[in-house]
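Retroviral-like aspartic protease family protein: C-alpha coordinates wanted.
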Amino acid sequence: MACPHAPWPGIAGPYLLACAIFGLSPASAEAAGLADQIHALARDNGFPAEGLERLGAEPARSAEGTIKDRLQTLLQGYNYILAESRPGNIERLVITGTARSGKPQSSTISTLRIGAHHQVEAILVGPNGVTQTVSVLVDTGASTVVLPTSMITPLGFDAEGLSAGISQTASGQVHTKIGVLPSVTVGPASAENVPVSFIADKRLNGAMLLGMSFLNRFRLTIDDERNEIVLLAK
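Answer:
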Protein backbone atom coordinates (compact mmCIF):
# COMPACT_ATOMS: atom_id res chain seq x y z
CA MET A 1 0.00 0.00 0.00
CA ALA A 2 1.56 3.27 -1.07
CA CYS A 3 1.88 6.16 1.39
CA PRO A 4 1.13 9.73 0.31
CA HIS A 5 3.09 12.74 1.50
CA ALA A 6 3.52 12.99 5.25
CA PRO A 7 0.84 15.16 6.87
CA TRP A 8 3.31 17.06 9.04
CA PRO A 9 6.44 18.95 7.93
CA GLY A 10 9.80 17.52 8.90
CA ILE A 11 8.73 13.92 9.53
CA ALA A 12 8.36 12.60 5.99
CA GLY A 13 11.25 10.14 6.40
CA PRO A 14 10.04 8.44 9.59
CA TYR A 15 6.44 8.54 8.36
CA LEU A 16 7.19 6.79 5.07
CA LEU A 17 9.48 4.32 6.83
CA ALA A 18 6.65 3.36 9.21
CA CYS A 19 4.36 2.76 6.25
CA ALA A 20 6.96 0.66 4.46
CA ILE A 21 7.84 -1.49 7.47
CA PHE A 22 4.42 -2.10 8.92
CA GLY A 23 2.26 -2.03 5.82
CA LEU A 24 -0.12 0.44 7.44
CA SER A 25 -2.44 2.90 5.85
CA PRO A 26 -1.28 6.54 6.27
CA ALA A 27 -4.08 7.43 8.67
CA SER A 28 -3.06 4.65 11.08
CA ALA A 29 0.73 4.62 10.70
CA GLU A 30 1.35 6.12 14.12
CA ALA A 31 -1.64 4.95 16.17
CA ALA A 32 -2.23 1.40 14.89
CA GLY A 33 -1.37 -1.58 17.06
CA LEU A 34 -0.57 -5.18 16.22
CA ALA A 35 -4.23 -6.10 15.71
CA ASP A 36 -4.72 -3.22 13.25
CA GLN A 37 -1.53 -4.21 11.46
CA ILE A 38 -2.64 -7.81 10.95
CA HIS A 39 -6.16 -6.73 10.03
CA ALA A 40 -4.75 -4.49 7.29
CA LEU A 41 -2.46 -7.26 6.05
CA ALA A 42 -5.39 -9.69 5.86
CA ARG A 43 -7.67 -7.15 4.18
CA ASP A 44 -5.10 -6.17 1.56
CA ASN A 45 -4.37 -9.83 0.72
CA GLY A 46 -7.95 -11.07 0.67
CA PHE A 47 -8.18 -13.50 3.59
CA PRO A 48 -10.20 -13.38 6.84
CA ALA A 49 -8.41 -12.88 10.17
CA GLU A 50 -10.23 -14.08 13.27
CA GLY A 51 -9.33 -13.73 16.95
CA LEU A 52 -7.66 -10.31 16.63
CA GLU A 53 -9.14 -9.35 20.00
CA ARG A 54 -6.77 -11.86 21.61
CA LEU A 55 -3.80 -9.65 20.68
CA GLY A 56 -4.79 -7.03 23.24
CA ALA A 57 -3.17 -3.61 22.94
CA GLU A 58 0.20 -4.77 21.63
CA PRO A 59 2.06 -2.25 19.44
CA ALA A 60 2.76 -2.88 15.76
CA ARG A 61 5.89 -4.86 14.90
CA SER A 62 8.45 -4.83 12.12
CA ALA A 63 8.01 -7.68 9.63
CA GLU A 64 9.41 -8.38 6.16
CA GLY A 65 9.31 -11.14 3.54
CA THR A 66 6.36 -13.09 2.15
CA ILE A 67 2.89 -12.78 3.66
CA LYS A 68 3.41 -16.05 5.55
CA ASP A 69 6.84 -14.89 6.80
CA ARG A 70 5.37 -11.61 8.00
CA LEU A 71 2.50 -13.32 9.81
CA GLN A 72 4.86 -15.72 11.54
CA THR A 73 6.99 -12.79 12.71
CA LEU A 74 4.03 -10.69 13.81
CA LEU A 75 2.42 -13.57 15.70
CA GLN A 76 5.47 -14.70 17.65
CA GLY A 77 4.21 -15.51 21.12
CA TYR A 78 0.75 -16.53 19.92
CA ASN A 79 -0.91 -19.76 18.83
CA TYR A 80 -2.80 -19.60 15.58
CA ILE A 81 -4.26 -21.53 12.65
CA LEU A 82 -3.04 -20.65 9.17
CA ALA A 83 -4.81 -22.35 6.26
CA GLU A 84 -3.19 -22.36 2.81
CA SER A 85 -4.77 -23.69 -0.40
CA ARG A 86 -1.24 -23.78 -1.80
CA PRO A 87 2.11 -22.43 -0.54
CA GLY A 88 1.85 -18.67 -0.17
CA ASN A 89 -1.91 -18.51 -0.82
CA ILE A 90 -3.41 -17.78 2.61
CA GLU A 91 -7.10 -18.64 2.92
CA ARG A 92 -7.75 -18.11 6.62
CA LEU A 93 -6.04 -16.96 9.82
CA VAL A 94 -7.40 -17.74 13.29
CA ILE A 95 -5.55 -16.49 16.38
CA THR A 96 -6.36 -18.88 19.23
CA GLY A 97 -4.42 -17.44 22.18
CA THR A 98 -1.11 -16.75 23.84
CA ALA A 99 1.63 -19.37 23.57
CA ARG A 100 3.46 -20.57 26.63
CA SER A 101 7.13 -19.79 26.99
CA GLY A 102 9.70 -22.32 25.87
CA LYS A 103 11.19 -23.59 22.65
CA PRO A 104 8.41 -24.63 20.25
CA GLN A 105 8.54 -28.03 18.56
CA SER A 106 7.18 -28.52 15.07
CA SER A 107 5.36 -31.64 13.84
CA THR A 108 4.53 -32.14 10.16
CA ILE A 109 1.79 -34.73 9.66
CA SER A 110 0.67 -36.14 6.31
CA THR A 111 -3.09 -36.22 5.81
CA LEU A 112 -5.60 -38.15 3.71
CA ARG A 113 -7.95 -35.86 1.80
CA ILE A 114 -11.65 -36.60 2.24
CA GLY A 115 -13.27 -34.06 -0.04
CA ALA A 116 -12.31 -30.66 1.33
CA HIS A 117 -11.23 -32.13 4.68
CA HIS A 118 -7.93 -33.49 5.97
CA GLN A 119 -8.04 -36.80 7.82
CA VAL A 120 -5.37 -37.96 10.29
CA GLU A 121 -4.89 -40.84 12.70
CA ALA A 122 -5.33 -39.95 16.37
CA ILE A 123 -4.47 -42.02 19.44
CA LEU A 124 -7.01 -41.45 22.21
CA VAL A 125 -6.51 -42.41 25.82
CA GLY A 126 -9.64 -42.64 27.95
CA PRO A 127 -10.06 -42.71 31.74
CA ASN A 128 -9.47 -46.47 31.73
CA GLY A 129 -5.99 -45.96 30.25
CA VAL A 130 -6.79 -48.02 27.16
CA THR A 131 -5.68 -46.51 23.83
CA GLN A 132 -7.97 -46.26 20.82
CA THR A 133 -6.59 -45.35 17.38
CA VAL A 134 -9.18 -43.62 15.20
CA SER A 135 -9.35 -41.64 11.96
CA VAL A 136 -10.49 -38.07 12.58
CA LEU A 137 -11.22 -35.10 10.33
CA VAL A 138 -9.35 -31.90 11.14
CA ASP A 139 -12.18 -29.44 11.84
CA THR A 140 -11.39 -25.92 13.03
CA GLY A 141 -15.14 -25.27 13.23
CA ALA A 142 -15.65 -27.86 15.97
CA SER A 143 -15.08 -26.55 19.49
CA THR A 144 -14.04 -29.96 20.85
CA VAL A 145 -12.94 -33.39 19.74
CA VAL A 146 -16.18 -35.09 18.60
CA LEU A 147 -16.73 -38.85 18.91
CA PRO A 148 -19.73 -41.20 18.61
CA THR A 149 -21.53 -42.26 21.78
CA SER A 150 -20.61 -45.88 21.02
CA MET A 151 -17.06 -45.02 22.15
CA ILE A 152 -18.07 -43.85 25.63
CA THR A 153 -17.76 -47.28 27.28
CA PRO A 154 -14.69 -48.54 25.34
CA LEU A 155 -12.80 -45.41 26.38
CA GLY A 156 -13.72 -46.02 30.03
CA PHE A 157 -16.18 -43.18 30.60
CA ASP A 158 -19.21 -43.54 32.83
CA ALA A 159 -22.07 -42.37 30.61
CA GLU A 160 -24.08 -41.22 33.64
CA GLY A 161 -21.16 -39.17 34.90
CA LEU A 162 -20.72 -37.15 31.70
CA SER A 163 -22.11 -33.63 31.46
CA ALA A 164 -25.05 -32.99 29.16
CA GLY A 165 -24.74 -30.35 26.45
CA ILE A 166 -26.09 -29.02 23.19
CA SER A 167 -24.01 -28.72 20.02
CA GLN A 168 -24.84 -26.71 16.91
CA THR A 169 -24.19 -28.67 13.72
CA ALA A 170 -24.89 -28.08 10.05
CA SER A 171 -28.10 -30.08 10.42
CA GLY A 172 -29.24 -28.28 13.59
CA GLN A 173 -28.81 -28.68 17.33
CA VAL A 174 -27.93 -32.07 18.79
CA HIS A 175 -27.65 -33.39 22.33
CA THR A 176 -24.14 -34.24 23.48
CA LYS A 177 -22.37 -35.78 26.44
CA ILE A 178 -19.19 -33.98 27.44
CA GLY A 179 -16.07 -35.38 29.07
CA VAL A 180 -12.29 -35.00 29.10
CA LEU A 181 -9.81 -37.32 27.40
CA PRO A 182 -6.62 -37.72 29.44
CA SER A 183 -4.53 -37.70 26.24
CA VAL A 184 -4.84 -37.17 22.48
CA THR A 185 -1.87 -37.80 20.16
CA VAL A 186 -1.58 -37.02 16.44
CA GLY A 187 1.77 -37.99 14.92
CA PRO A 188 4.41 -36.75 17.37
CA ALA A 189 2.09 -34.04 18.75
CA SER A 190 0.27 -34.74 22.00
CA ALA A 191 -2.02 -32.86 24.39
CA GLU A 192 -3.44 -33.78 27.79
CA ASN A 193 -6.88 -33.21 29.32
CA VAL A 194 -8.66 -32.60 26.02
CA PRO A 195 -12.43 -31.89 26.17
CA VAL A 196 -14.50 -34.29 24.06
CA SER A 197 -18.14 -34.29 22.98
CA PHE A 198 -20.00 -37.53 22.31
CA ILE A 199 -22.82 -37.40 19.75
CA ALA A 200 -25.19 -40.17 18.67
CA ASP A 201 -23.58 -42.38 16.05
CA LYS A 202 -26.33 -41.86 13.49
CA ARG A 203 -25.85 -38.08 13.60
CA LEU A 204 -22.13 -38.37 12.80
CA ASN A 205 -22.50 -40.82 9.91
CA GLY A 206 -19.20 -42.45 10.82
CA ALA A 207 -17.24 -39.18 11.04
CA MET A 208 -15.09 -38.24 14.03
CA LEU A 209 -13.69 -34.74 14.42
CA LEU A 210 -10.41 -33.33 15.70
CA GLY A 211 -11.66 -29.99 16.97
CA MET A 212 -10.29 -26.93 18.70
CA SER A 213 -9.96 -28.45 22.18
CA PHE A 214 -6.90 -30.22 20.70
CA LEU A 215 -5.92 -27.87 17.87
CA ASN A 216 -5.81 -24.70 19.97
CA ARG A 217 -2.87 -26.14 21.93
CA PHE A 218 -0.75 -25.52 18.81
CA ARG A 219 0.00 -23.16 15.99
CA LEU A 220 -1.62 -24.96 13.10
CA THR A 221 -0.86 -24.63 9.38
CA ILE A 222 -3.09 -26.53 6.94
CA ASP A 223 -1.47 -27.08 3.54
CA ASP A 224 -3.99 -28.25 0.94
CA GLU A 225 -1.43 -28.67 -1.85
CA ARG A 226 0.97 -30.87 0.11
CA ASN A 227 -1.82 -32.70 1.99
CA GLU A 228 -0.30 -32.08 5.38
CA ILE A 229 -0.76 -30.15 8.57
CA VAL A 230 1.98 -28.60 10.66
CA LEU A 231 1.51 -28.39 14.43
CA LEU A 232 3.89 -26.06 16.26
CA ALA A 233 3.72 -26.91 19.96
CA LYS A 234 4.74 -24.88 22.96
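DSSP finds five helices and 14 strands in the chain. The longest strand covers residues 172-186.

Cheers.
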